[in-house]
Design brief:
The chain has 600 residues and is mainly beta. Helices cover 7% and strands 35% of the residues. The chain has a 6-stranded mixed β-sheet, with no helix packed on it. The chain has a 5-stranded mixed β-sheet with strand order 1-34-35-36-37, with no helix packed on it. Strands 2-40-39-38 form a 4-stranded antiparallel β-sheet, with no helix packed on it. The radius of gyration is 22 Å and the shape is globular.
């Protein structure tokens, strides 16, 4: 119970430190009856203290009620619950519904933004959105067209709005936002269109821009102190965001920020990852391409970087580093440490000291990962912290217009944005994963603003010589760097998991099943097939003394783009259409929220 005590005390400290947080949101997150933020809390643990539904009775779950969203594309993210109100979002056109849970789910208000449909073809991998956020009596929506909107939570009226990017040059949005202190933190999508990634902080009350930090560029753009910002414990030095790029390539360098954000209020730091460098043809961008593929720790107030860690220098496979950073307090070698655990697209799971950026663990979380033999963990080595690339699977060494085959994982990674959860009692991470490999052929491409800037043709398929499926759901020990148990799945597990104090972990499958498993053993305890494939994230709340489990179904996302967009060419969807062609035999389009509860 030591880790659980630390977790709950961390929230208590946050509540006491009123200068450090938005009081309203922190209070809501501290109340287990609510689901006040997409990630469960600022630590991204996706853990609930509710235990009315537990390992002994979860098999008795029944559908309590459903709600149709009226939209057919991929439904990522989850609803929020604040007091007796539930806020449900959709993919493009990004409708938001406010439902009164105390009045049979009556629609209190509906917000439907008027967006130009021309933004749809500029969105890389379906028209998904990972959900709204809440703070200070407002609902925050970051639309596909990059407009950030603050809505009055009670009425749905627009309080303020601001344009964060320009879809005409390929800038779009798929992510949620992070409301923290007096700010709303916002990212950007568009790495496949040569966008230069950035993170921006807006004033929560006015929408005024407070700071913006780019992923690459001059020191003043990326908000670093050359002597104080560190990479693996050493100062990054001057011009770190430009000197590993050829010429002005950094201006269209990618490194977009469409993943999840976490925060340590005591350290006043926020954490996130940056995506792939542009283009996907590595021959066109010599060098390490900093700071793409990087974990970043920044000061919440100023945006100034405390430390960086680049996981995949000079990426050759599109292994975006945007997946969530999960914050924990755990014991290592007899010492309590503030940790950050990250399951990267590149197939490596990293455990780091989140205060200093020290690298503690870097291990494969799928045994089939073959592009690297592992990370150099010797601090005295010239290649410390770098993955050793296997020449056979190096798309750069094999050359342009050469098809490199059998690379594991595929570009969508051993895990994409679908968030993992953490059980503080067991010290285990519950991780949805992809078990997919690829062929990758880079080719030369020219940049035109607003046009695809990819430069590679891909084919995806299940990992060979394995269980035949394209996914696993695993339990991971982040201290030992090893899998405790693994559940094979026919398709990638593209749903975010939820872990509860009842000893149960929930996740969804692309065929449409919501499943409940014993967190400690992985034993399946319950499953139910919803109307469409699940790429949403499981959430829980309590209302009227009863615990509920909620999940959005609606197949789509990168894995389901063939179904979602009606694509049939196997190479479309950046290679996903062919890899997931069989998905149409198991599910169909449809956006629905399904809510479960125990029988009365």
């Amino acid at each position: 119970m030591k880790n659980l005590s630390l977790w709950t005390s961390g929230i208590a400290i946050a509540l006491a430190t009123t200068a450090y947080a938005n009081d309203d949101l922190v209070a809501q997150m501290e109340n287990a009856k609510q689901w006040a933020i997409q990630t469960g809390d600022y630590k991204n643990q996706r853990y609930s203290e509710l235990d009315q539904i537990n390992a002994d009775n979860v098999g008795d779950l029944q559908v309590a009620w459903t709600f149709s969203t009226g939209v057919l594309r991929g439904h990522e993210g989850s609803p929020l619950v604040i007091d007796d109100m539930m806020y449900v979002h959709t993919p493009f056109p990004n409708i938001v519904y406010a439902l009164d849970l105390a009045n049979e789910g009556k629609i209190v208000w509906k917000y439907e933004p008027k967006q130009d449909p021309d933004v749809i073809p500029v969105m890389c991998c379906d028209t998904v959105n990972r959900g709204v956020a809440y703070a200070d009596g407002k609902i925050f929506l970051h639309q596909a067209d990059t407009k950030v909107v603050a809505l009055d939570a009670k009425s749905g009226d627009v309080v303020w709005e601001v344009q964060n990017g320009d879809p005409a040059i390929g800038e779009t949005n798929t992510a949620t936002v992070l409301p923290i202190k007096d700010k709303v933190i916002v990212g950007i999508s568009g790495g496949e269109f040569g966008v230069r990634g950035s993170v921006t902080a807006y004033d929560m009350n006015s929408g005024e821009q407070v700071w913006r930090a780019y992923s690459m560029g001059p020191d003043s753009d990326i908000l670093v102190d050359p002597e104080k910002t560190t990479h693996l414990g050493k100062p990054v030095g001057a011009d770190s965001g430009t000197n590993t790029w050829e010429g002005d390539q950094w201006k269209i360098g990618g490194g977009t920020t469409w993943g999840w954000y976490s925060a340590d209020l005591d350290e006043n730091l926020m954490y996130y990852g940056t995506g792939n460098p542009s283009t996907w043809n590595p021959a066109q961008r010599p060098g390490d391409n900093r700071w793409s593929m990087t974990i970043m720790a920044r000061d919440i107030d100023t945006g100034m970087a405390r430390w960086f860690y680049q996981m995949t220098p000079h990426d050759e496979w599109d292994y975006d580093g945007i997946n969530e950073m999960i914050l924990t307090e755990q014991e290592i070698d007899g010492e309590q440490r503030k940790l950050l655990t990250h399951f990267d697209r590149n197939g490596l799971a990293y455990t780091m000291d989140r205060v200093t950026g020290e690298l503690l663990v870097a291990e494969k979380f799928d045994p089939v990962v073959n592009w690297t033999t592992g990370v150099d963990m010797d601090p005295n080595s010239e290649t410390y912290g770098r993955p050793a690339v296997v020449a056979q699977y190096s798309t750069e060494q094999n050359g342009e217009d050469v098809n490199s085959t059998g690379i594991c994982p595929a570009a969508l990674g051993t895990k994409d944005q679908q968030p993992a959860s953490y059980d503080p009692n067991l010290g285990l991470f519950l991780v949805p994963t992809n078990h997919v490999c690829m062929d990758y052929e880079p080719f030369r491409v020219s940049y035109t603003a607003g046009q695809p800037y990819v430069g590679a043709t891909l084919a995806m398929y299940p990992a060979p010589d394995s269980h035949g499926g394209m996914g696993n759901f695993i339990a991971w020990d982040n201290i030992k760097g090893e899998i405790k148990w693994s559940i094979p799945e026919q398709f990638s597990v593209w749903s975010g998991s939820l872990t509860t104090a009842g000893g149960v972990t929930f996740y969804g499958t692309l065929e449409g099943y919501i499943k409940a498993v014993n967190t400690e053993t992985g034993e399946e305890l319950y499953k139910f097939k919803t109307p469409s494939g699940i790429i949403g994230n499981v959430m829980t709340y309590e209302q009227g003394g009863k615990q509920y489990i909620g999940i959005l179904s609606g197949v789509g996302g990168w894995a389901g783009i063939g179904l979602a967009a009606g694509l049939t060419n196997p190479n479309d969807g950046l290679g996903a259409v062919g890899g997931y062609a069989a998905l149409s035999d198991y599910t169909a389009l449809g956006g629905q929220l399904t809510v479960f509860a125990l029988p009365n």
